[in-house]
Structure formats: structure tokens, C-alpha cells
Amino acid sequence: QYGMNSIYQEDLGGEFQEKSEIYTYESMIRKVLTHLIEKFPIKSLELFLKNLNFSINFFLKNKDKDNIDDHSLIWRRNFNEKPISKTFRSVLIDTVIEIILFVGNNVKERFPYAILELQKYNNLTFIRLESFAYNNFPELSTDFINKIELKTEHFKTIDENYELFHVFASFFDQFPNKTQNFYLKYITKGVKKQKKALRKSRWNKNLPKLKKEDIDRYIKHDQIRKLKPIRKYIKQDFLNKLGINFTEIEKINLFEKKGVVFGTRSPLSETTIENFTMEELIAYLLIYDSEKSFDFDKIGLGRQLKNIVPKKPNEFISMLNDTLNQPKLHKYISFIIGGLNTALKENQNLDLKSLFEIFKTILSEDFIINTEPLFFKEDT
């Protein structure tokens, strides 16, 4: 009950001056968790999954309601991955992971029941937790993988999702034929829907829509990312139909280092972003939607952008100027400015006149930053 009350306080916003709320909640869990999972491992998992599901749904339901949810505060609290930066959701996810590891290592016969609890919820966070269980305990997971039927919403984010990515990489041939065929069809047929969306996309009303070659290049890159986890299961004939070769797939490095990807990991590596043209990058940012994925994906992408900006600052100045006219991209403004700040410290030759005009626009009374801007520093 304490946890539910605290979740209400967190997800309805506020300045969070009473920072002890999250500490108290986590310390209470730590005091009882060992005894709980030793005596009631599955019941404990059921309890914390219910709390996590409530927290996620309540956050999504209320995040835009009357603008009372301070997103920038939420993102900042999670940025450094320190105790003061934790939210109730991150505490609950850590707790669920701990229970999964306990069950898989100590009460293997209860593992099927743990998976059934995870499968009760239709949210990508729970798919990631389920995939985490499969990756850590493959010998206990075969019977479940043989029956998994995933949906398009899961495929859309597989190149952002370390856990599901590696389940596909290790066990794709063990998935039901229906799921395998559906995924391959998604890679080929889903392109049409993406092309349609990109043709309609106009990231700057003063510029023409994306050119056909830019759209085709982006689509091909997206297909390569989706093919990466199943590269050892696909045949050359299939790739020939897409105009893709194995070398292109091997070059893609979606994950720079191994680890559980919850929170602030970027869906794209620095190399991938560097290889994008500005038009391709804008197109990606416009259609990238982490609404159904874990809440903190966007900040990882923003941080990656911040690292790339000093490598081609004037291109990003031009992009930033156009970004002001595209509310969907406002959430990345502070990250780009952070990268430009780094470039200034490095005494790079920047287009200061254009940059000054951009700052004048941002600081003007008429300019409004829309759609839950993310601030990577409290003083940005």
C-alpha cells in the first residue's frame, strides 16, 4: 500500500522535495525481499509485477494530462543511475530482475510459473523482462520459446532491445514457424508502411519533403538492423530480394557493450548516427517512438546525439535551426546544445551568427518548447 501511494505522488509530478520517498520504498523492499523470495518466490514476483504494471500504466495515462507531469525532472533523476536518480519504476524493475535470477538459480522447478506471471502483461517492459529470463536461463526456456507468438509492436523495437535481440540471435529457429514467418514478412512488407509515413513526413515546412533516395537509404538501413539478430538463420536468396548482402549486416554494431539495457542506452550506436545524413537522422528521429518501450529510451538517444555533435557541429547547427519548427524534435534541443557547447570549448570553427539567431529564437517570448522536452542537465 505504501508503494502504491508513493507511485501516485511520483507520477503526478511535483518538485519531489521529499526525496526520502523513493529511498524509503527501496529500503523497505531490501529489508524484506530476501525473506519474501526464499519463502514465496512466485507470489513475491506477482506482487512486484502488479506494482510495476500499475506504475507504468499510471505514468503513461497521466503524463500529458494538464501538463502536471514534470518529465524533465523524471528524466534527470534517471540520468546518472545513482540512488538519488531512481524512480519507483526503476526500483521495481531491479527487484523483478533479482527475483528472476533467484528463481532461475535456486528454485528451477518454479521457473515456468515465473514466466507465466511475466506473460500476463502486454507491455514491452515485460517482454524485455521475459527475454532477460530466457537469456540467462536458456536451458529452462525451450518449452516457452517454442510457443511464443510475438506481435508487430515487438518487432519494431528489436534493434533497441538487447534482451529480445539476443533471444532472437540464439533461438530464432526454435520459435514457432508462424512467428518466424511473421517477422520475415514484417521486414519485407512493413517497408511499404514506413515509406508512406516518410513520404508524408515534412520536418521543415520551408523545405521539400524527403527525396526518394533518402527514403530508400533509410529503409534499407532499418531492414539491415532488423536482420542483424537472425543473420545466421537467413539465406542468400532472401537477402537478394532485399538488395542486401551479409557484409552490410555484419558491419552494423547495435550494442556497443554487453549489459542489461533498461533505461538510458541509445537504440543507435555513435557509428550508425555518424553514417546518417542529416536528412536520414531527422527522418529517424521523427518516426522513432518509444511510447510503448521502456520510458527512458529517448534520453539515451539524446546523449548519443550530444556525443556526435562536436564531430560535425555546423551541420547540427543547421539541423537545430530546422528543429525549432518541428515540435516532435524539441525534446532533443538541449542535447544538441550540449554538444555545441563541447565544440565551443574545443575552439572549433562554428557558424556563430546562425547559432546566435537560434538562441534569440529559443529565448523569445513567442517560442514554446513542446512535447515533453528532455533536459540532460538541471542547469541547461
UniProtKB/TrEMBL annotation:
This is Uncharacterized protein. The lineage of its organism: unclassified sequences, metagenomes, ecological metagenomes.
